[in-house]
Amino acid sequence: IFYELDAKGYYGLNLDMEYISPDDRESYNAFLMELSGRLHEAGYILVTAVAPKYRADQQGILYESHDYRVQGEAADYVIIMTYEWGYTYSAPMSVQPIEEVRKVLTYAVSEIPSEKILMGMPNYGYDWTLPYTRGTAAQSIGFIAATDLAVQHNSEIHFDEISQTPYFNYTENGTRHVVWFDDPRSIDAKLRLVEEFDLAGASWWTINRCFVPNWLIVQNQFEVVKL
Per the confidence metrics, is the pTM higher than 0.85? Predict the structure, then answer.
């Protein structure tokens, strides 16, 4: 880690360790504290990523070893991965329903200083085949591609007020589909949670699909400083 940081002139380390055995929770905590100390001594920052938890004792291998309080102490920033409610093998739904994000952030700020929290933002949606059958995979889709697909099929884009997320249906070769994605309305609504919870900011996964309206909304809501 330190060789790579030095050789490439990086600003710091982003550590995303998932599916850690619950038996290794305390070992992972100890590793984070040691790593944090050594990084800070060398002038680097530590950013960690954690699963979206609703409570400290949440069950499941994705959640149990992510100790919000310890990570809040060890890291300079903690990315809460507030996405993937709708995912590749889930039933069709919003990738980032705002009411679920708010629940996670309510718990997060009780364990981690709010000025250290970065709210996760998804830069993708999913296209599901209907009727949904458990075990079948949805296809990831970018926001521009999703809008183009709706136009191509002359589909009306609806907006779900509860999740604050757009979606549309279309039929291709006799097969029905539903697409959940994000647009300027949903991005704007979710980024407003940063101010509501007094967070450090937001973090995007993934960045490789450019969606210009996303950055216009960011520039409108925040002062962007390049470090």
Answer: yes
